[in-house]
């Protein structure tokens, strides 16, 4: 079990993307996400939420950042708007 602060993002793909966008607007640009069961939650996020964030200009695949000479170790690091 992990200690520390945390919150749950629950809702449709659009609603979860909206919450992430709200955090981004507050200056939060890196997230540690987890869900259970892991595989299903990763799929749900990757296939449902990430495309919405990409359309909104809040996320890009890590390989796209590397193509511009940037180094990104986590996909959500691209949320900082400096891309």
Task: Give a brief rundown of this model.
This protein has helices at residues 13-25, 38-55, 62-66.
Query: Largest sheet, described in full?
Result: none
The sequence of SSEs as H and E is HHH
Average pLDDT number: 80
Count of all domains: 1
User: How many helices in DSSP terms?
Assistant: 3
Rounded to an integer, what's the Rg over CA atoms?
13 Å
Question: Which class best fits the helix and strand makeup?
Answer: mainly alpha
What would you call the quaternary organization? single chain
Beta strand %: under 5%
Distance between the amino and carboxyl termini: 34 Å
Uncertain stretches: 71-75, 77-83
Helix content: 40-55%
Number of strands: 0
So what's the overall shape? globular
Outline the structure in words.
The protein is mainly alpha-helical and 83 residues long. It has one domain. 43% of the residues lie in helices and 0% in strands. The protein has three helices and no strands. It has helices at residues 13-25, 38-55, 62-66. The protein is globular, with a radius of gyration of 13 Å. The model is unreliable at 71-75 and 77-83 (pLDDT under 50).
């Amino acid at each position: 079990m992990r200690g520390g602060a945390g919150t749950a993002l629950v809702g449709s793909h659009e609603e979860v993307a909206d919450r992430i966008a709200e955090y981004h607007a507050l200056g939060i640009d890196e997230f540690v996400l987890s869900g259970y069961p892991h595989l299903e939650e990763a799929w749900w996020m990757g296939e449902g939420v990430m495309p919405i964030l990409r359309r909104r200009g809040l996320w890009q695949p890590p390989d796209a950042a590397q193509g511009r000479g940037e180094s990104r170790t986590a996909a959500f690091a691209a949320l900082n708007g400096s891309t």
